[in-house]
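Supplementary Text 2. Reproducibility record for the structural model of the 373-residue chain.

All settings were left at their defaults, and a single model was retained for analysis rather than an ensemble. We include the record here because the model underlies the residue-level annotations in Supplementary Table 4.
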Amino acid sequence: MSKFVFHVVIVFIFFNFWNCASDSKERLTNMVFDDIKYIDNFPQSFSIDGEKIDIDVIGVRNFVISDSAIIMSTNNKDSLWVIASLPDLHVQGSILKRGQGPTELTISPSTTYNTKLIKEDNQLFAYIYEYNKGELIKLNISSSLNTGKSDVSIINDSLPKSLFNFIVIDDSTYLCKEARNNHTQQIRYIYKQKKEVNDYSNLAKLNNVSIRYNEDINILSTITQHNPSNDIIIEMPIGLNYINMYSLDDSFARTVCVGKSLFNIERIQNNNRWDRIYTFSDLRLFENFWGVLYINESEKNYQLKRKNYPSILLFDWTGNSLAKLTLNQFATSFDIDLQTSQIYTFDVETELFFKYDITNALSSLNIAETSKN
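Retained model, structure tokens:
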């Protein structure tokens, strides 16, 4: 072989190796799919004004709207959930207690995350993951309000404990996400019939990402929800500027990036903790669209003095942007009452509820009659 040919071969091998290494690093520093949709502008934008509302409940953490009621998760040990009717905001009662008893919970469960609300036989139920016990409980909300006692049954008492995400897919299938490898990764898997199943390419793609040892594991944390109507999972990170959409049968996978470029996980770890960006704080799914609460504040500003009012960003189920709704009050959680075309927000720092009339916005988007998942 001539020296020229030899050098060409070496250069070819080097550049191919470099490209493969770069591609591999790109995959490991971005928790994304191959199909990425960049959203820099929204086709419609609305600035909406909130009206302060009073609900006679203290210690609220988050809330959800379901079945013409607002269900609030609180820090009160004897009333972990409080339910008020809509639109009059009359408190109907409280359910669930903190404790070690068979019908008690060790922590106050979120009303939306690791929780699934369903209607069965004209009654409202909640499936709740018990973080410390590794249990799935079924709460009959309607019966509990009628009797004044928590109507709770244990569905599964042998689930993995301390999961970051737990999604009920069906009666025997659960999507789990837990920290592994010395808290350098958050691994997704399907848990079925007391076995861990890992043969899902969409999950494997997201599982490849890791952080450094002793870094903040929440860099990889996501708020995750499932739409049973189209079987799509939405994963919304709290410190990255993109959201992942995918199906469990691996037929669909897309990343929606809010901005012109992806937040790089390697670079985030190089930043001072105060300089890292808190991007999203809440996720809600509806029949024809879904939405996120966009914070976009540095950790320092968010913890010490917030500067920017948040926005609610709406997308369709293919990841196309629909609208940006800019609030005039701070908020950490939101939900939409589609029957009355009202957005409700709550801010955990100020402990204030607001509501916003979005009749015009929903009408222009042609989604006013859409139901909630």
